Amino acid sequence: MTGSPRIVALAGGVGGAKMADGLVQAAGAECVTVVVNTADDFVLYGLHIAPDLDTVLYTLAGIANPVVGWGIDRDTHATLGAIAGYGRDPWFQVGDRDLATHILRTEALRSGRSLTHVTADLAAALGVRSSILPMTNDRVATMIRTPDGPLEFQDYFVRRRQQDEVIDVAFDGIEAASVTDEVRAAIAAADLIVLCPSNPIVSIGPMLLLPGLREALIAAGALIVAVSPLVGGKALKGPADRMMTSLGHESSAAGVAALYAGLVDGFVLDTVDAELEPRIASGGMRTLVTEAVMRDAPDRGRLATEIVAFGLSRARVPA
Amino acid sequence: MTGSPRIVALAGGVGGAKMADGLVQAAGAECVTVVVNTADDFVLYGLHIAPDLDTVLYTLAGIANPVVGWGIDRDTHATLGAIAGYGRDPWFQVGDRDLATHILRTEALRSGRSLTHVTADLAAALGVRSSILPMTNDRVATMIRTPDGPLEFQDYFVRRRQQDEVIDVAFDGIEAASVTDEVRAAIAAADLIVLCPSNPIVSIGPMLLLPGLREALIAAGALIVAVSPLVGGKALKGPADRMMTSLGHESSAAGVAALYAGLVDGFVLDTVDAELEPRIASGGMRTLVTEAVMRDAPDRGRLATEIVAFGLSRARVPA
Q1: Checking CA distances to B19, which of A120, A299, B51, B218 falls within 20 to 30 Å?
Q2: Bridge partner list, B290
């Protein structure tokens, strides 16, 4: 490794975006590549919406809504109101400024540009100097099986507020999809790879199942560090805890570590979960026990700085 | 004719929408069908924009911006601002509420619905009880030939503010397009047909050139009355006067009447043009000389009431 460390973060939505922002603070924007889950992308009113990409984009551009973590700060909702006036259900909160992203993304995709190129254009226009890469240019769609039948992910997540029991999760189209060359190259060149504190089932999960991505991680020379999205057995945000339980996993940092076993070299867990550390370490992972909850921007930078030091403190153990 | 007269108005943008609104006041919403020019439709940021349809729609829904005549009253422009923030030229004023129309229209067209059905759905959702019919479901695009080369219509009209000299006007795709069955049926059933005070070259013009529409007008049993968009030789709005001159027509009510000769039975002109009345009448048209400028909503109703009385006062002279 020469110069600044090159860091690749695998991210879902809000938790991933916060971690990515911390890594930018810790290592510098140009050194960070964020690989983003696209399995919860969907089409709304004919527009291609990429919730996780948008959350990472807006966060790194410094325009994210600081209260909820997604959407644009102080955005208005006049268009959505008018769409409701036309009799359509405004179940998904699309802001007016936010809508510009969806409109221009959809236009570019229809003109034949790849999601990778579109995302790079949008990020550049917003002054983002990190690289934001969708995991794939192909369509993958998370489907949630519930007692009431299968639900598209945003139906489950937003419209029905994650109230359904999750019996199974499937990723439509994933066998035919492939990781992009850009993601593969970034992983190969990385000095450190961070699995962000995102939902291990529906955010990190599809990335690890995407043909070519796990293989790229395994072949990478960099150490892979995962950050637990579960603290004290609870998800900081979203339904990860209940989803873990209903799918037969332990809803804890140790349960997450077990999902990542065989892939991840280092595991970061919160001090409240310190008692789980020996179990995780006994599974062969190095551990970092620290304040892992990012309450504000300085928190993100502090946690990321610790993770970078932890991740770079040792070369990878050859497989 | 039994019961209320059925009126078909052929309309372009603002002048046509005002006339349509007047006819609704005069005859009742359910009795009015507005056939609207679509040759200035275009695609912006991947969205299908239909400026004349929207102007008629918003006017009849009572939500049009009363100052400029197009767009939605007190609309905001947050999305357009964000699109500009992405580096795109915000040359066409798309409001946030307005955008809902473009988004839902585009979605429906892409799903395979016809522009006729989409327009009916939008109008119904906004509580419009008149029938608003696009002239065709096919793509027709007005092209303006200028000394600097050809321009798409909205480029000429909005972006370049009608400053270019118009050497010629062509309607791309018009030979392959056809009038809809709905327009044909409305014309056949009409008791009175009104050519609104819209630009005779680029608003009424493409309708009269559209395969099947002129034939339907000629075959109609109803009297056809045209309202001059030129008063005192000047267009009330837009470039009709300069366009008439540069294309070799007289820029006056008489020049407009000459363009409609052989098709129109009655012609409505403003009192300031009373001296032109004998020339127009000598061409075989009946004439109505009145206050033909619609300055406010009551003006529209008053003018329309006069036109309906004028148009229904005599049966059509058989050809």
Answers
A1: B218
A2: B270
Rounded Cα–Cα distance for residues A86 and B106 (Å): 14
DSSP B11: E
Domain boundaries of chain A, sorted by first residue: 7-139+173-312, 141-172
pLDDT tens for chain A, 319 residues long, are 456 899 999 999 999 999 999 999 999 999 999 999 999 999 999 999 999 999 999 999 999 999 999 999 999 999 999 999 999 999 999 999 999 999 999 999 999 999 999 999 999 999 999 999 999 999 999 999 999 999 999 999 889 999 999 999 999 999 999 999 999 999 999 999 999 999 999 999 999 999 999 999 999 999 999 999 999 999 988 899 999 999 999 999 999 999 999 999 999 999 999 999 999 999 899 999 999 999 999 999 999 999 999 999 875 554 4
Rounded distance between C-alpha atoms, residue B244 and residue B248, angstroms:
6
Shortest CB distance from A82 goes to which of B78, B97, B110?
B97
pTM: 0.94
CATH assignment, A7-139+173-312 = 3.40.50.10680
3-state secondary structure of A205: helix
Helix, strand, coil: what percent of chain B each, to 5?
Answer: 40, 20, 40
The closest CB to that of A76, out of B78, B100, B126, belongs to B78
The SS3 assignment for A109 reads helix
Number of Cβ within 10 Å of residue B81's Cβ equals: 14
**Count of CB pairs separated by less than 8 Å, A with B:** 95
Q: Do B103 and A45 touch (CB under 8 A)?
A: yes
CA B161 and chain centroid, separation: 19
> Which residues are paired to A188 by β-bridges?
none
Distance from CA of B157 to the nearest CA of A (A): 23
Residues A62-119 pLDDT 10s: 999 999 999 999 999 999 999 999 999 999 999 999 999 999 999 999 999 999 999 9
Q: Angle formed by the axes of helices A96-110 and A115-125, to 10°? A: 140
What value of ipTM does the predicted structure carry? 0.92
- The two counts, helices (H) then strands (E), for chain A are 13, 14
Contacts of B78 in chain A (CB under 8 A): 75-76, 78, 95-97
CA distances from B50 to A231, A309, B39, B141, B167 (A): 53, 57, 9, 11, 25
- Residue B305 parent element (H or E): helix B297-312
User: Rounded CA gap, B223 and B191, in Å?
Assistant: 7
Residue A206: C-alpha distances to residues A131, B27, B86, B124 (Å) = 20, 61, 30, 43
**How far, CA to CA in Å, does A256 sit from each of A144, A205, A230, A241, A267?**
19, 11, 8, 10, 10
